Amino acid sequence: MPRRKSTETMTLDTKGAKIGEPVPKAVIDTNTASVGVPRQADHGLQEELNTLRQQIDALQHQILDRARSVKGGARKAMRQTEAAVKLYPVSSLLIVTAAVGALAFAARRASPPRRRHQPALRELRDLYETIRERI
After folding, report:
1. Interaxial angle between packed helices 45-87 and 89-110, expressed in degrees from 0 to 180 and rounded to the nearest 10
2. Distance (Å, rounded) from C-alpha 6 to C-alpha 69?
């Protein structure tokens, strides 16, 4: 059988915010109908600064480690490329030539087509043609 609906009504909190007042962004406790951030334990400013410094140091170490791994990977790729060029100089030259040609072709296709004559020059030619036809 379903539960019966509660007919008890809650009283409105008259101590709370009034209509039109800004509502603070905070934690809303539905049990006590209070709005606000619960009181935090008092920590010293020095403790917070030390914690932040430790976090910054950890981030710096992570960044340095990642930079070193990227740098090592780039060095390895450079050594492998040098070895491949030494072993296969003709093939390497053909690959580089093909890559440059493909880039040049793509750049040429991407650029808008150029008009041979500028609009002002075209107007002057049309004017010259009309004058010539009249004579």
Report:
1. 110
2. 65
Provide the whole-model pTM: 0.39
Residue 92 burial (C-beta neighbours within 10 Å; 0-12, 13-18, 19+)? middle
The answer to whether 28 and 17 are in contact (CB under 8 A) is: no
Distance CA 115, CA 120 (A): 12
Residue 21: the pLDDT is 67
Tens digit of pLDDT for each residue in 70-121?
Answer: 999 999 999 999 999 999 999 999 999 999 999 998 888 776 666 655 777 8
Residue type, 106: A
The alpha helices in the chain, defined as continuous H runs, are: 45-87, 89-110, 119-134
